[in-house]
Amino acid sequence: MTESGETDIWRDTWVRYLGYANEVGESFRALVSYKIVRFSYVVAFAYTFADTGDKSYKMLKTDGRPKKVLIEAGDVLIWQTLASVIIPGFVINRLCTYSSMGLKRFTKISPMTRNWMAVGIGLSSIPFIVRPIDSGTTWFMDSTYRRWVKNEL
């Protein structure tokens, strides 16, 4: 959690899109090897762990109490895992799957063209899902984890 007015490189800049690498993998799932999709998850989790490490280190430097550092690490790890990997991965996966199923009605379109259309739908939706998922995840964290650990700070 950053101070007011401070730019969070992990959430407020283009770096945030590294957390969405798995959504690119999910978009291309119908066209590429499962190994490429899995690698996209490696990139997304690396981003998640980098943000967790960065914020934990900053908390260690500013406060130094192990309990506060662990609470901060838990907050960031849960938030990033939900907002960068689990929720958007599921959304894009379902969007591409249902798009592909819907496009099967158009029998004059070749299967390869339908797959590419589903990829395009998945990729083009990424910029539109980032803010709503981030906001929803923040609300969820404020309603659960952050409320539960508030007394521990």
UniProtKB/TrEMBL annotation:
One Gene Ontology CC term in the entry: mitochondrion
Residues spanning the signal sequence: none
InterPro entries reported for this sequence: Mitochondrial_18_kDa_protein (IPR019560)
Transmembrane region(s): 76-96, 116-133
Keyword vocabulary terms for this entry: Membrane, Transmembrane, Transmembrane helix
Pfam families reported for this sequence: MTP18
One GO biological process term: mitochondrial fission
Record PANTHER family: MITOCHONDRIAL FISSION PROCESS PROTEIN 1
Family: Belongs to the MTFP1 family.
Name this protein carries in UniProt: Mitochondrial fission process protein 1
